[in-house]
Design goal:
The chain has two domains: 92 residues, no CATH class; 129 residues. Helix content is 13%, strand content 35%. It contains three helices and 20 strands. The strands form five sheets. The chain has a seven-stranded antiparallel β-sheet, covered by helices on one side. It has a five-stranded antiparallel β-sheet with strand order 8-7-6-5-9, covered by helices on one side. It has a four-stranded antiparallel β-sheet with strand order 17-18-19-20, with no helix packed on it. The protein is globular, with a radius of gyration of 21 Å. It starts with a strand and ends in an 11-residue tail after the last strand.
């Protein structure tokens, strides 16, 4: 049987599809804190009095429960082992790269459609993350759904830059509203203006970056679920095909490094509505 392994001996079955790899960081209660892409950095801040101050360390994915920290040497950790080491020395760990100056705002009237998922309607939504806080309200369970391929857990047609920013957005939301169930419910109760029309118990918020918009839908029903819809801001990403001058032209091409390969745009619709064409060694050492 033909199999392949990566540098750490992790097997890939023949013909298996390669998926982007994320490193999950948890606390000692196994609560998820954040995710970063393979090869991204974390910042470790040591407690007062520790002469190391802080350190930035590259992390490499091994499997869903192990990763390697690259620094003064190289150490391999189980995710729970790393959390234990950090708790024992009193250190804080977080993604090195985070969204800065990104403001979370209640929804604006007219944006209601951006908080729903309609498979029959083409739009610039890349996909969504749905999740809940578990039975006790202090967990963070999530899953990704690709709106381009219509497949769950499918990251095809997404760029590394998109995936990195998506989880930066998730981390930012976790600091303010998605820390746990009680935090989300309290945040919603403090923003009655964010109630989506004709729902009564569903709230909508928007987080915007230079290139994307993230629409957060929070349900305050007993399951207290949330959905984060990721939209690529279309205006700066599109330019007319060569030889086309009409502002309402039907065909556009993406600018360099745009997420989508090609779009067909309907002039009678808002610019949002766009249809695409197509076993580890353990160590407790350095960090």
């Amino acid at each position: 049987m033909d199999t392949s392994t990566n540098a750490y001996g992790v097997f890939s079955p023949p013909g298996s599809k390669t998926h982007p790899q994320f490193i999950r960081f948890i606390d000692t209660e196994y609560r998820e804190l954040f995710k970063i892409p393979d090869g991204a950095n974390i910042k470790v801040t040591y407690p007062p009095g520790d002469l190391r101050g802080f350190a930035v360390r590259e992390c490499r994915y091994i499997d869903d429960h192990h990763f390697r920290v690259i620094g003064n040497g190289s150490d391999t950790y189980h995710i729970a082992e790393f959390a234990g080491v950090m708790e024992r020395i009193g250190a804080k760990y977080e993604p090195q790269i985070q969204l800065r100056n990104a403001e979370l705002l209640p929804f604006t009237p007219g944006e209601e459609n951006f908080y729903t998922y309609n498979r029959e309607e083409g739009n610039a939504c890349v996909g969504h993350i749905s999740g809940d806080f578990g039975h006790n309200g202090d967990r963070f369970h999530t899953g990704w759904n690709n709106h381009i391929t219509k497949n769950e857990s499918d990251w095809e047609n997404t760029t590394p830059e998109f995936r990195a920013e998506l989880y930066q957005a998730v981390y930012a939301l976790r600091q303010e509203v998605l820390k746990d169930r009680d935090t989300m419910l309290a945040y919603c109760n403090n923003h009655p203006e964010a109630v989506l029309p004709s729902t009564g118990d569903i709230y909508g918020f928007k987080l915007e970056t230079d290139t994307r918009q993230y629409y957060l839908r929070c349900s305050t029903e007993r399951d207290s679920r949330f959905i984060i819809y990721a939209y690529e801001t279309p205006a700066p990403a599109l330019e007319l095909l060569p030889g086309t001058t009409d502002d309402h032209a039907m065909f556009y091409q993406p600018k360099k490094d745009s997420l989508y390969p090609m779009y067909r745009v309907f002039p009678t619709l808002s610019p949002w509505f766009i249809i695409p064409r197509s076993p580890a060694r353990h160590s407790t050492a350095r960090v």
